[in-house]
Structure formats: structure tokens, C-alpha cells
């Protein structure tokens, strides 16, 4: 879900119907139930040709924008995997989301997105939707 008229790596914080925040709290809401840790993993080959870092036709390096977009896509794949797991638990949010990465073998590495799956109290009704932050407004419209 890409926000309109934004940079390609900007995404709303609502993924798979789950609100994702890097903070330990969501302003105006409290945690009703802690469901546990969730994680998502994106594995990548260190082969520069297979991952698109090197142009197959010319053998030269792809531009910085292409390389950046490939790395951002890897992180969002991990976040999407994490939120799919949270949704299976019945969570409506993941709080304290973080990234980690490691080399698995000489030719593979992983990017991990992890956080705490929770169920939040319903959003306050006294805040007009138009005045809420875009991701928060989107998340509360669906409830």
C-alpha cells in the first residue's frame, strides 16, 4: 500500500491490516492484550547479478536509486511477512518494531523485522479522522 505522491520507499504504517510502529505505545490507545513476539524474514543471495545490483547486459553497477530501492524492498518484504504473522494471531498492531540482519552463509543474508503483536483499545472517537496522522486515520477507519 503506497501512499500517493510520495517517494517509492514511503509506505503507510498499516500493513496487512496491522498498524506498525517503532514506539512502545500508540498515542491515544492502550494495549489490551500482548500476543507475543512476531518476526518476518527476507532472505537474499549475495550474488550481485541475481539481486539486481549489477546490470546483466552491461556488467556495470546499477544506479544508486535502483540499489536503494532493492534494499528498501527487502525490508518491506520482512515487514509484510511480520505483519502477516501478527494478523494470524489476531493482532491489530505491532509495537516496538525493529530490524536486524545477519549473514547466514557465505552467499546468503537475511533481514529480519520483529516486534510485539498486540491488541489495542478502540481508537478515541473524539478526534476527527481528518486531523489524525494518515496511517493512524487509515487504521482507525477500518475498525
UniProtKB/TrEMBL annotation:
State the similarity comment.
Belongs to the UPF0145 family.
Going by the entry's taxonomy, the superkingdom of the source organism is recorded as Bacteria
Q: Which organism is it from?
A: Hamadaea flava
Q: InterPro entries annotated for this entry? A: UPF0145_dom_sf, UPF0145_YbjQ-like
Gene3D superfamilies under this entry?
A: Hypothetical protein apc22750. Chain B
Q: What protein am I looking at? A: Heavy metal-binding domain-containing protein
Q: Which PANTHER family match?
A: UPF0145 PROTEIN YBJQ (PTHR34068)
